[in-house]
Known about the structure:
Number of strands: 9
Number of helices: 6
CATH architecture: 3-Layer(aba) Sandwich
Helix content: 25-40%
Strand order of the largest sheet: 5-4-3-6-7-9-8
CATH superfamily: Vaccinia Virus protein VP39
Radius of gyration: 16 Å
Structural class: alpha/beta
Distance between the termini: 30 Å
Order of helices and strands: EEHEHEHEEHEHHEE
Strand content: 25-35%
CATH topology: Rossmann fold
Number of domains: 1
Amino acid sequence: MTRKKPGAEHYYDELPKSKENLGLVRTQLRGEPFEFLTASSVFSKTRVDLGSRLLIESMILPESGTILDVGCGYGAVGIAAATFNPRLHVVMTDINSRAVQLAKYNCEKNKVKNCEVRQGYLYDPVKGGNFKCVLSNPPVSAGMETVRAIISGAGKVLDKGAAFQMVIRSKIGAKTLPNLLMEQFRNCTVIARQSGYRVLSAEKQ
């Protein structure tokens, strides 16, 4: 469950109650133009945040198959992956109903047809799935319990030899999260560092 201060609305709430103040982000990712509709009570309303941007710029995608963006928000990471490799089928999940609706709209807005969005907590919407890659910009402010669940759950849905790739803030998880990945996967590599963030990758053995 999401942990938060009493009375405070969190972007990892299932049903946001705040007024839906919309925004529009225009940006380039890997040299490609994108537009994302955003809203209040969804993570990083005014821009593609630095962590997601680093993950997008450095993620290593398989040549084909199905991949997962867990905790997708308004869809920047998954939509970028679907754009960069049209041979992939991208599944995106988020617990936030507002984020899910935005991600669905943004798939259409960016003309990507090789992706789908499902609502639910972490891996609940994809139980029994097998993925060639799992991507995540985890909601650290939702609590480390959620981040641990993202890491431990990844191994259950990944194919053998497939990679879990996660972006973290260096000052928050530079020691703790690589250790968790080592416990889960027995390997962990830093594939990118920039602006106080790093992207970790672990392969299912």
